[in-house]
């Protein structure tokens, strides 16, 4: 499908990650200076110039699991640590939120406005660092250059690619359930009222023309929905009114982060199939992943700054419980790639991953391939 | 009025692609065949009238280099004068099977050249005209394959250059069907193939040993994901929710319907009765009746039925019989085929 999809997928999921982390940092009463440092570190890593260069190269999407490793890295780019259960929950929330935004996007092109909403909010998170702000603005410019000239057809292909990436993912998210935008079976509610996409007329009119092009008849019909025309088009400029609210921060202190885990039983078979089947293309994916993550520069925590652990759940007990009760088909734990088959790639990836390795984690000494998988597991 | 019938379960959910449902009716055995794309695989199944699935088959796109398994873009049954072939298009090429999907009789690999580095390469848009099968390409070209009455000696006979952007859909109609309503002197310019693309441009062709471009109907900035042809009238569904009807031979616009609130993803025709079906991402399926105006002779439209499929981003919809008294619908992320029939 479209080879222009990865930057949008990465930036929007990253934006959702930051919304959630920001909310949890406040909920967990992490001191302000530490919280600011965490967000600044992650944003700076996310928008690193070399990493963005790799990201914007035309390429296919990674599997959900491979992409998850990128966010594992990103979430650990600062002094904050997340354990497996919290990281799972974080990734679930991010993916479901962006799936919702892509699905509800009025026009395919509006996925760019969703991205801009995320970038606008990310800029608001940055504290006292013109350098990081500049990084985000550079990415904004790159987005405008890459996507500004694309046709409606190309955006449609991008949207289809994103929807195929999120296909069969039906995790119930409490904030969506409460807002009645998600049904209890995990499917999103598609409204049949409200503003139309920009450029679409209110359905209900049939106009007939004769051979000379003169209108000879105007008839109405009942569409079944009740829509209003879009008030104006959202701004694609660096600063402007995006009009569209999709992609803005939906969390606040009063609206905490919660999830209900549920593998939609009807699609269980398909999902398990995906995780069991060995992927012969994994080697190549690993290769690309190595290149991508290679562009991500993570500063090792230096100095006396003590780290802390962030919990996506209200209590530690809940977190433990979630780790035990997580449905198997939703597990990201083992990246099912036959890593041991390609020594060279592995060494490269292991080297890169090793650079970010948190030193106090015990390392199993085995082949490099096992190391890599172990590192991914340990996150 | 239509009522919901028992739906047919699918092994995998339908992918978010336009025209993601193909239906083949075999009146002899009273079976209906359905084809749906899941992503890297497509599912074929046949069902008896009461909706019980009888036989199922999974088809995969042929592997090739790449990070992920190639995605299928469309499956479609091509009814030719002497045989029926199932055509599958993907990001790797074109696969043609015997109608039950059991034997692959032809494979055409896409030659991307350097294009694959900067843009997606795929085939999309499938239709049969006489003994030809036309398949659209990412580049805008349309490949015309000459199909023998039997066997696998399929030959690429022509490449049509009418489009500059990726082809979305192709519609055909037996030229015979139009003969009755045409003056004798115009029979050479009977349009029997229409191709549509991502920019909304339509190209109207006369098929034959050499295809002839009759006219081009310009787009207006939105894609045209689905197109149909009925008695010399083109029905085109657009990304802004509009359905437009044109005179195929001249390209004259006769009807413009503000039909849907979101992009249209599928159109279908019941040729016996001139019924048109339009389905869109706004969760609605509409059925329209086409007729010729008694005075001017141009086409007119009447709305017959609207069906909401709640919370479903429809991605495929087809009539299940030539008289348009039943239809089937697929939706993104939905692992079933929904069926409706008139009461």
Automatic annotation (TrEMBL), chain A:
One Pfam family it belongs to: Oscp1
InterPro entries per the UniProt record, alphabetical: OSCP1
Superkingdom per UniProt: Eukaryota
One GO cellular component, as annotated: cytoplasm
Protein name, as recorded: Organic solute carrier partner 1
Recorded name of the encoding gene: OSCP1
UniProtKB/TrEMBL annotation, chain B:
GO cellular component: cytoplasm; plasma membrane; vesicle
Domain WD repeat-containing protein 54 beta-propeller intervals: 1-342
Keywords in alphabetical order: Cell membrane, Cytoplasm, Fertilization, Membrane, Repeat, Ubl conjugation, WD repeat
Record has Repeat as a keyword: yes
Cellular localisation: Cell membrane; Cytoplasm; Vesicle
Entry-linked Gene3D superfamilies: YVTN repeat-like/Quinoprotein amine dehydrogenase
WD repeats: 257-291
BP GO annotations: single fertilization
Principal localisation: membrane
Claim: ATP-binding is one of the keywords in the record: no
Pfam families: WDR54
Function as written in the Swiss-Prot or TrEMBL entry: Plays a role in the adhesion and fusion of the sperm-oocyte membrane through its interactions with IZUMO1 and IZUMO1R/JUNO. When cross-linked to form dimers and trimers, it has a regulatory effect on ERK signaling pathway activity in response to EGF stimulation. Colocalizes with the EGF receptor in WDR54-specific vesicle where it sustains the internalization and controls the degradation of the EGF receptor after EGF stimulation.
Subunit structure: Homodimer and homotrimer; forms tight forms of dimers and trimers. Interacts with IZUMO1 and IZUMO1R/JUNO.
Protein name: WD repeat-containing protein 54 isoform X1
Organism in which the protein naturally occurs: Balaenoptera musculus (Blue whale)
